[in-house]
Design a protein that fits this description.
Chain lengths: ~525, ~525
């Protein structure tokens, strides 16, 4: 009787004879002892070695998957596709044990796949033994398991899962990769909404260092799964939009022979018997690509800043989304291209990543990101006037302090209802030597910053493309022109006027979602105090 | 009479009054003196200051383009779109002077835009003066100019240009950015077909260091324009194909706290008061992303190798196309995914980049790249057998030497007619500690390399995802496991079996095109002896 059932349930699965079951149980036990998991070992003892357990072959610790066989006949179903399985018989699912609780003759287990969850049930009966229920209830959270199950519709929504209209009746369950019983953080705690009141008033939160120290666990929360999928979306949109506009992707070296801007805030690398530096920006190389006739280029890559800034928005290594473009007569040709690229990114995120935005919103307070089309462009002087109207004292040629930058963001939002705007015509005095001065007013320059929710996410300018003038401006800035000779040389063989800018990817994601710390949008952040994991 | 013509020709162009013309001539002269170009200055003297020159306002050195005005009414035409302009009146083109030759009353000028060229003519008459012809003939090669012209169909193909069915009759010509009169290399020399016999038997070639030292010029050749557009295509295809397969793009840190594989060949970075290293591979981080439930990930970014290898295929910094993927039972699920990704890339290049492939073929001998669908998979042992059949002595557990690797590529090509193949099941002894041993034969491992034209372009494997076994293997390799504790720790919270690989982007492009040196496919290559530009 039992044999027959096993044969049915085990089609294409572990061997079913008692001998084989014992052998497997023995192997499983060995693995358990190795893993040092007492709970599972105890369950195993009760199960595998007990020939009276009619379910013995239907559960246990799987052998290490070493690619011994392909089992290509075994079809796996993803959680979001479970609905189609209702009433269709047995199938397999691989996922993590989100929670598991055995209670008497039943075990309720929530299985998780990335951000999706489904309720699974094991109930003692013809197929399942009490030992099997106990085993399932003892599987450590976060372990990866394979289950064979049937999908059954439920009359009432299961509120605790993302798959709310069904549950899975498990007939086989095997641990593929067992997690440590003690986790350094609980996924439930790490996923808890920031503003939610805890019923028990404990308000358990996971602090940022614990999260980052255990990033492999922390990244499993639905918000983190969504953040990094949305981040991939930002990069994809950036590239696709620019490719459609005729831009060519380039790759620029990160190891450079001379520090780009005077040697401040630069990391030194030992390069065989010499010293070299890590590039603080791909700007020189983008400009060389323009001088080399690539016309419009972009590059996505690591950028390094040796600033000892321990703030919510500084990283020592981040991903730069950089672009550079030749223009005909006016750098606004470029300014508008960049502005429209942002608009298209914002639209793309809104339209294609609404699920991710919503998932982040489940944990963090996400205000929808507002933007105008075309984007708002203000002159720096207008920004200064707005700040002064608000009672702030600031000079005409004074750079925006971080508080003033944020205040201006709020003033712009109040007046124009946009979270994105462009500030054009920065004072010449506060921009780098290669910035083209404004031909109409020597106090200003053809340079711009772009802001999201009041924080700078892009800095750019028309660059001086005439070598003699570049030398003049470098000297004015007290720069030793012999040290930038190669840079200047690039413009001696004909170079079109050009402008560009660099975007901090992590900042874009942080500010688009309205998050409070850039470490939330860097998968493995680097700051002056953190080099691991 | 002259005034009227000027007014017509100058619609929306430089001011036309004599006063303005003089002013412009003065500014131009100043610029010329600054630029130190005697030839142009002489032409200018003959032209701008001579009120008798009826064409004076129709040519000269343009003021530096500083974004003074937008001239948005001025429409520019791209060379490949010129055909539509035949018989349609005046329009503007911006491009480089490829060559220019004044002969008596005519000047023949070839204008270049990226890889396109068109013949332009200036002939003395009502519109053009002899001074203007002289000016045009003296513009240094590679200068960027704006011309206003009409397109006229020609009866016989112009063989020397890419736009062969028409020529441009120039009515205005202004230098936007003047090149030095002496160029360190000539674009014509740098573009010369490798196998072409020079009529004069001079066989002028530009050597690689001269090219790389003057990369801004070298990159302007049609072959280089094509190589780097095709390279952008490789990256785009890689990403799009994997995104369509459900992969998520991630970004991994380049600055790491511990050298990944024993500390050999790693660059050291000074990190504030500490030391750090440059990542030799994103592998650990890809694996962490898998352990963190991202399931299938890829990353495109800089990879650093401090190897003092001065070969045709080694760089100290290159672009890695890396991927990692969880699988169910057998690493061949991943192997096939990678293999099919390559097939899709090869098809994409063949179908979408045929113009670029052809352009490279104009200069270098490019044999069409052959591939099978699905790709050929051989076991390492089969490869060894083929080599032995060819008379090579090589051990069962001996790694392929570079000559053997190449020979095997030729043998495979002869037997299977493919330039791409996969070598599976490498001997365990020659692979890193984290490689999963073959469960069926302890001499081998679940690891693979992939080859293009007989050179390795990908190395990959199933990784050990069980911490205890990883420790055992690390110890076997004599690795201090305390130093890789963080790596091992990543697998303690449940990790699916997974495999992946890393591809060298520059190698793929080099070998797809059959080029002989990786420095041809790195825009700004880095090797032990080259850190500039």
């Amino acid at each position: 009787m039992v044999e027959d059932k096993e044969n049915t349930a085990n089609a294409g699965q572990e061997p079913v004879s008692k001998k084989a079951a014992k052998k497997q149980a023995k192997a499983a036990k060995k693995a358990e002892l190795k893993a040092g998991n007492a709970a599972a070992a105890a369950a195993d003892e009760a199960a595998g070695d007990n020939a009276a357990d009619h379910a013995a072959a239907r559960y246990g610790l799987s052998e290490m998957i070493q690619s011994k066989d392909k089992r290509s006949e075994r079809e796996f179903v993803l959680l979001p596709e479970l609905n189609a399985q209702i009433g269709k018989g047995l199938f397999w699912v691989r996922g993590r044990v989100h929670t598991s609780r055995a209670k008497g003759k039943q075990c309720f287990l929530i299985l998780r796949q990335q951000s999706s969850t489904v309720q699974c049930i094991l109930a003692v009966g013809d197929i399942i033994s009490k030992e099997m229920v106990k085993f399932a209830g003892n599987i450590p959270k976060e372990s990866i398991i394979d289950i064979q199950a049937k999908a059954v519709a439920v009359p009432n929504k299961i509120e605790s899962c993302t798959e709310q209209s069904l549950e899975l009746f498990v007939e086989q369950i095997f641990v593929i990769s067992q997690a440590k019983a003690q986790l350094p953080l609980q996924i439930e705690d790490a996923s808890r909404p920031e503003n939610a009141d805890d019923a028990e008033g404990l308000n358990i939160r996971v602090n940022q260092d614990t999260r980052l120290d255990n990033r492999v666990l922390d990244l499993r929360t639905p918000a983190n799964q969504a953040i990094f999928r949305l981040e991939a979306g930002v990069c994809r949109l950036f590239r696709d939009i620019l490719s459609d506009k005729g831009f060519t992707e380039i790759h620029t070296p990160k190891i450079i022979s001379a520090a780009s801007e005077g040697g401040a805030n630069v990391f030194t690398v030992s390069y065989f018997k010499d010293s070299a530096y890590l590039a603080q920006s791909p700007q020189l190389y983008k400009q060389m690509a323009i001088a080399a006739d690539f016309d419009k280029v972009y590059t996505v890559g690591a950028v390094f800043r040796a600033e000892d800034s321990n703030t919510h928005r500084h990283l020592t290594e981040f991903v730069g989304l950089d672009l550079e473009m030749a223009f005909k007569y006016h750098y606004h040709e470029v300014l508008h291209t960049i502005g429209n690229t942002f608009t298209a990114i914002f639209k793309g995120l809104r339209d294609k990543y609404s699920r991710e935005i919503e998932a982040v919103g489940q944990q963090y307070k996400v205000e929808p990101f507002k933007f105008l089309e075309p984007p708002l462009i203000l002159n720096f002087a207008d920004g200064v006037a707005m700040l002064r109207e608000a009672g702030i004292e600031t000079g005409d040629e004074e750079d925006l302090s971080t508080p003033n930058e944020k205040l201006l963001g709020r003033l712009v939002k109040a007046k124009y209802d946009t979270d994105f705007y462009i500030l054009d015509k920065f004072p010449l005095a506060i921009r780098p030597f290669y910035t083209m001065p404004d031909p109409n007013n020597p106090m200003y320059s053809n340079s711009y910053d772009m802001f999201m929710r009041g924080e700078e996410i892009l800095s750019g300018a028309q660059r001086i493309h005439v070598p003699e003038y570049l030398i003049e401006r470098a000297k004015h800035h007290g720069i030793d022109t012999t040290k930038i000779a190669a840079y200047i040389e690039s413009f001696r063989y004909g170079c079109p006027p050009h402008a560009g800018g660099g975007i901090g990817m992590e900042r874009v994601v942080m500010l688009y979602l309205g998050l409070d710390n850039i470490r939330k949008t860097s998968m493995f952040p680097r700051d002056p105090k953190r080099l691991t994991p």
